[in-house]
Design brief:
Strands 1, 2, 3, 4, 5, 6, 7, 8, 9, 10 and 11 form an 11-stranded mixed β-sheet that branches. The chain contains 14 helices and 11 strands. By secondary structure, the chain is α/β, with parallel strands linked by helices. The radius of gyration is 20 Å and the shape is globular. The protein has helices at residues 19-22, 69-79, 81-101, 106-114, 122-125, 150-167, 174-196, 214-222, 235-246, 286-299, 316-319, 323-332, 336-341, 344-351, and strands spanning 2-7, 10-18, 41-44, 47-53, 204-208, 227-232, 256-259, 272-278, 300-311, 354-360, 365-371.
């Protein structure tokens, strides 16, 4: 379970460690966590807990995302095509080597997908009449075809595992990092819905931008009685999602996979209790973010919950990235500056959402939750 505590302009999520299981709280000094002079003891389900906070930087966003001489230099470097190709290759090599140093079998897992029967899923997934938004055709993540390729789909899950290890550098394993990141995200959802939904249950869930279904499966596991839908623009990602889901034991409510644009899903209005965006918005220009938020508002029932988790502009770690690292990062994320300059809470409010809350759910990422007003007609 997670604990909430007020802090400056946003709220921070505190991780609890049971005193009964771990003894009296010990101070930690690990990358991305704040040193505590004392521990905070809070009663949760009649048990004491130790709270450890993630640390914010001193700014609203990283300097490299603003109009500064350094930012302009990085933009110029990334826009120079010969150098961009080198940066893109370097970024990819860093991703793979970093993963394998953390015992994440990048090449092996990728090969297993590419040599499987995943290709047979495509005909049942792909919507051949779908028109892709122009921004989606960008070369995301060092792939020339962006997200529209089998290689990108085959590497998506292992890239997510690598991201989690980078986000939780003090974790002893990928499993531990995953438990912390996903656990905090799921707890933020449950806490928000419990406080603001009017006691309605989460029975229908839509995961927009679901990629290869990692976040979708976590939602389905956490809400086993809910009907869960994963929606994405990449038929290759969705093919991998469906292929991997078929390898698991059957669910009471099978996950439904839809190939569609998140801005125009074609799904009925007021048909979901929870709409989720996991690591989607940093890949979108602001105009797409506005459209996605508007569509989520249309799809949610009154009292329904919106949740988005993504890079946190307030993260101390991200604000202190070295020029070399953030140049590599920018070379693989064409809309990253635009994301960091977007007032997400403001955009949610303009769309009609209320009870908007932002929490740091790991040292690098935030989770934002909001509610559709109960009186919404």
């Amino acid at each position: 379970m997670a604990l909430w505590a007020s802090s400056s302009s946003c709220q921070k999520l505190f991780l609890e460690t049971l005193v009964a299981r771990h003894g009296n709280g010990r101070r930690r000094s690990r990358n991305g966590r704040r040193d505590l002079d004392s521990v905070v003891h809070v009663g949760v389900a009649e048990r004491e807990a130790v709270a450890i906070a993630y640390e914010e930087g001193e700014r609203d966003r990283p300097k490299w995302a603003e109009e500064t001489p350094l930012s302009r230099l990085v933009k110029a470097l990334v826009s120079f095509k010969p150098l961009y190709s080198v940066l893109k290759l370097g970024a990819r090599q860093v991703l793979i080597s970093t993963a394998e140093k953390k015992n994440i079998p990048w090449r092996e897992m990728t090969r297993e997908i590419l040599e499987s029967d995943v290709y047979k899923e495509l005909p049942s997934i792909e919507n051949p009449s779908l028109r892709y938004p122009d921004y989606y055709l960008s070369p995301f993540h060092a792939y020339d075809e962006g997200n529209l390729s089998w290689l990108a789909a085959a590497e998506a899950e292992v890239a997510t595992m690598s991201m989690m290890r980078r986000a939780i550098p003090y974790a002893s394993s990928t499993e531990e990092a995953t438990r912390e990141m996903r656990g905090n995200w799921l707890q933020a959802i449950k806490q928000h819905h419990m406080e603001h939904s009017g006691n309605s249950k989460i029975e229908t869930i839509l995961d927009i931008g679901c990629s290869v279904g990692v976040s979708t499966r976590f939602l389905a596991d956490s809400f086993p009685y809910a009907k869960v839908t994963g929606l994405d623009l990449s038929p290759y990602f969705l093919s991998v999602a469906q292929f991997k889901e078929k390898q698991r034991p059957p669910r009471k409510n099978p996950i439904r996979w839809i190939h569609a644009a998140g801005e125009d899903t074609g799904l009925p209005s007021k048909s979901f209790d929870l709409v989720s965006f996991a690591y989607v918005f940093h890949e979108c220009p602001e105009r797409a973010i506005i459209a996605l938020v508007a569509e989520a508002f249309r799809l949610l029932r009154p009292g329904g919950t919106l949740v988005l988790t993504d890079q946190s502009p307030k993260s101390k770690i991200l604000q202190e990235l070295s020029p070399a690292l953030f140049t590599l990062l920018r070379s693989t994320e064409p809309f990253l500056d635009e994301y960091y300059l977007t007032d997400l809470e403001g955009r949610l409010s303009e769309a009609g959402f209320v009870n908007i809350k932002t929490v740091l759910t790991d040292p690098r990422h935030m989770t934002m939750t909001a509610t559709v007003p109960h009186q919404h007609v």
